[in-house]
């Protein structure tokens, strides 16, 4: 079966990442080639593009992607490693942003290359994994652990639980940009074309695969934890209606008063249904782009694939660290 031909803005061609079959048209991805995605009311700016590389002596060098969401609630997603403190301050200053201007900081998970500069933002609302706090150690209720999103700006920016890489991993969904829905994904994705890498770094590959599949059904652009942003394409006739539906807010918006009080409103049944795994509607007719045959644990990983964060060689399950 021949693959459908797609075109995209920026003159980039589609690179299918999954084998085709008549029942499951392939989805594809392509580099975005941009660090700024304009939008209303939120623009997405990649301040620092994450990377990872294997060094000749067997060590790894890496840092995480840092992304700024410019809009009514200035939000930073991940903070890079502590070694990049001055660089992060400089990147923010170049945007005219002082640390005290940032109202929300989301660390997609607690690894050092993502949460290393959290203490630059003591005045912000902080979400690290599933730990939500404000002020001097005031921990706030939410329902991420039950699968419900946490709205930062209802209808525009919300945090989704995307477990797998770590149990409390989150991603940040930004709606209404010029390129559609953007997912700032932390280490849910190491980078585009990361099939051989992500499983070895995952605490729970089965859950992460589910999270990846659901995330890719929502996102038009993914900003991964250790590589440049990439676009997500779906075959015509398959994704367009679904995407139109998925980009609508899928649960009643939280009363802004709840946010001012610092907590998320208790989720309605409709809101919980939007993201709870057991109730998530199955995306039919499109296989996940990254579905690959399972690779044996402890198997060989290429040097390129080893170049990922959290940056321990794969180890057998159950071996204590
Ligand atoms: Fe990580």
Please name the defining characteristics of this protein.
single chain, 321 residues, alpha+beta, Metallo-beta-lactamase, Chain A, eight-stranded mixed beta sheet, 8 helices, 18 strands, globular, disordered C terminus, binds fe (ii) ion
Structure explained in plain terms:
- Helices cover 17% and strands 23% of the residues.
- It has eight helices and 18 strands.
- The strands form three sheets. It has an eight-stranded mixed β-sheet with strand order 1-2-18-17-16-15-14-13, with helices on one face.
- A hairpin with a 3-residue loop joins strand 13 (150-153) and strand 14.
- Residues 1-26 and 237-321 have low confidence and may be disordered.
- Fe (ii) ion (FE2) is lined by residues 109, 111, 165, 187, 309-310.
User: What percent of residues are in strands?
Assistant: 15-25%
Strand order of the largest sheet: 1-2-18-17-16-15-14-13
Low-confidence stretches: 1-26, 237-321
Counting helices, strands and paired strands, the structural category is alpha+beta
Main sheet: strands, sense, barrel: 8 strands, mixed
State the end-to-end distance. 47 Å
**Average pLDDT number:** 75
Name the CATH class: Alpha Beta
Q: SSE order in H/E notation?
A: EEEEEEEEHEHEEEEEEEHHEEHHHH
CATH architecture identity: 4-Layer Sandwich
How many β-strand runs?
Answer: 18
Summarize the structure.
The protein is an alpha+beta fold. The chain is built from 8 helices and 18 strands.
Question: What's the structural blueprint in terms of helices and strands?
Answer:
Blueprint: E1 15-16, E2 28-31, E3 36-37, E4 43-48, E5 51-54, E6 60-63, E7 66-70, E8 75-77, H1 85-94, E9 104-107, H2 112-115, E10 125-128, E11 131-134, E12 138-139, E13 150-153, E14 157-161, E15 170-177, E16 180-184, H3 195-198, H4 205-218, E17 221-223, E18 230-233, H5 240-246, H6 256-261, H7 269-273, H8 303-306
Bound molecules: fe (ii) ion.
């Amino acid at each position: 079966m021949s693959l459908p031909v797609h075109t995209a803005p920026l003159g980039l061609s589609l690179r299918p990442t999954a084998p085709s079959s008549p029942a499951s048209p392939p989805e594809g991805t392509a580099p975005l080639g941009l660090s700024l995605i304009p939008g209303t009311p939120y623009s997405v700016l990649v301040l620092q593009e994450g990377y990872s590389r294997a060094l000749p002596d067997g060590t790894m060098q890496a840092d995480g992607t840092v992304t700024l969401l410019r809009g009514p609630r200035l939000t930073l997603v991940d903070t890079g490693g502590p070694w990049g403190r001055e660089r992060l301050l400089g990147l923010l200053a170049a945007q005219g942003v002082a640390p005290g201007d940032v109202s929300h900081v989301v660390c997609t998970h607690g690894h050092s290359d993502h949460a290393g500069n959290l203490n630059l933002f003591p005045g912000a609302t902080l979400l690290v994994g599933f730990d939500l706090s404000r002020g001097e150690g005031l921990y706030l209720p939410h329902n991420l652990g039950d699968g419900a999103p946490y709205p930062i700006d209802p209808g525009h920016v919300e945090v989704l639980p995307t477990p797998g890489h770590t149990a409390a991993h989150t991603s940040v969904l930004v709606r209404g940009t010029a390129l559609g829905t953007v997912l700032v994904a932390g280490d849910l994705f190491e980078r585009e074309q990361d099939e051989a890498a992500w499983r070895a770094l995952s605490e729970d590959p089965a859950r992460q695969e589910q999270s990846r599949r659901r995330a890719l059904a929502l996102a038009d652009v993914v900003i991964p934890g250790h590589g440049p942003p990439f676009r997500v394409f779906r075959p015509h006739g398959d994704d367009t209606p679904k995407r139109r539906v998925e980009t609508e807010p899928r649960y009643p918006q939280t009363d802004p008063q709840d946010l001012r009080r610092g907590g998320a409103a208790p989720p309605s049944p409709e809101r919980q249904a939007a993201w709870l795994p057991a109730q998530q509607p199955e995306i039919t007719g499109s296989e996940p782009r990254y579905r690959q045959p399972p690779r044996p644990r402890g198997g060989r990983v290429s040097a390129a694939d080893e170049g990922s964060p959290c940056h321990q060689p794969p180890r057998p399950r159950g071996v204590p660290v």
